[in-house]
Amino acid sequence: MLKQLRPAFVLLVLMTLITGGAYPLLVTAVAQLAFAEQANGSLVRDASGQVRGSSLLAQRFEGVQWFHPRPSAGDYETVASGASNLAPSNPELADQVRARVIEWAGSPTKPVPMELVTTSASGLDPHLTLAAARFQASRVAAARGIQPERLERLLIEHLEAPLVGPAVVNVLALNLALADNRLPAPSE
């Protein structure tokens, strides 16, 4: 019996060292060398260099002077990330969407973009389409006392083109530009 257990134990120790030690260290080293920013969380810093968040994660913004991200089923907490798992036929989902449409003051003449009333699959999507950002622009411009044209140019400056899908705006980057007063100069 010892003859059979010894190779199994040696293999267990060897595979533990390879898959639990060597491989993770190798992957970490390659990530740090080739993709340091992404491997360290894609952190976003303000003008003073302080970490304000990650470009990969949505976070809550309170107040009319800020752009708001998609709703989060996990309340923007990474531990509880995930979708609500409510089926399209679930009345609770319909009630949540209806309440969000009312909250955004949507109407038949001014429909609310779908991403502002539905949660993303992760619950932490940091991006909005240009249409969803523009939907909020008049509120933000009025709250900050700035010209809507300047805010529109700020939106265009923060537009990102992903490999697949529509162009998007990172809400954290956009709000940091507003916080640091990095608005485009007024057009002549």
Automatic annotation (TrEMBL):
Alphabetical UniProt keywords: ATP-binding, Cell membrane, Hydrolase, Ion transport, Membrane, Nucleotide-binding, Potassium, Potassium transport, Transmembrane, Transmembrane helix, Transport
UniProt membrane topology term: Single-pass membrane protein
Pfam families in alphabetical order: KdpC (PF02669)
Compartments where found: Cell membrane
Alphabetized GO MF terms: hydrolase activity
Superkingdom of this protein's organism: Bacteria
InterPro entries: KdpC
UniProt entry tagged with the keyword Ion transport: yes
Assembly notes: The system is composed of three essential subunits: KdpA, KdpB and KdpC.
Function per UniProt: Part of the high-affinity ATP-driven potassium transport (or Kdp) system, which catalyzes the hydrolysis of ATP coupled with the electrogenic transport of potassium into the cytoplasm. This subunit acts as a catalytic chaperone that increases the ATP-binding affinity of the ATP-hydrolyzing subunit KdpB by the formation of a transient KdpB/KdpC/ATP ternary complex.
Family: Belongs to the KdpC family.
Protein's name in the database: Potassium-transporting ATPase KdpC subunit
Natural source organism: Pseudomonas songnenensis
The organism's taxonomic lineage, starting at the top: Bacteria, Pseudomonadati, Pseudomonadota, Gammaproteobacteria, Pseudomonadales
